[in-house]
């Protein structure tokens, strides 16, 4: 006799209703770091850096907002002045620490 009709298939045919929109990706802001060492930056390096427990090029760049080459020169200057002590000397990363007294 009369059979029950099956519901008609959906019009999408099993695909997603809307096509996925790809994001353009995250864009990192360009860092505006100092390229030339002025008197204020030099004084800040000389005062603050020798008090840090860990001193490296990356840390100087991050905390003082200076250029990488400026950070390397500053680290060499601090070591020559005897304000910091070298821990690791590697071609990729130079790691220093503050000078400690005999009581430490």
UniProtKB/TrEMBL annotation:
The keyword Ribosomal protein applies. One of its GO terms (cellular component) is ribonucleoprotein complex. Residues 1-31 are annotated as: Disordered. Residues 16-25 have a biased composition (Basic residues). It holds the Pfam family Ribosomal_S25. Residues 1-10 have a biased composition (Pro residues). Keywords: Ribonucleoprotein, Ribosomal protein. SUPFAM superfamilies: Winged helix' DNA-binding domain. Belongs to the eukaryotic ribosomal protein eS25 family. This is 40S ribosomal protein S25. The lineage of its organism: Eukaryota, Fungi, Dikarya, Basidiomycota, Agaricomycotina.
């Amino acid at each position: 006799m009369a059979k029950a009709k099956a519901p008609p298939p959906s019009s999408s045919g099993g695909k997603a209703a809307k096509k996925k929109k790809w994001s353009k990706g995250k864009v990192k802001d360009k860092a505006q770091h100092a390229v030339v060492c002025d008197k204020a930056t030099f004084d800040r390096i000389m005062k603050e850096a020798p008090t840090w427990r860990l001193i490296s090029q990356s840390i100087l760049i991050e905390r003082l907002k200076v250029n990488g080459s400026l950070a390397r020169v500053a680290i060499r200057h601090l070591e020559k002045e005897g304000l910091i002590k070298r821990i690791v000397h590697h071609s990729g990363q130079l790691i220093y620490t503050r000078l400690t007294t005999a009581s430490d």
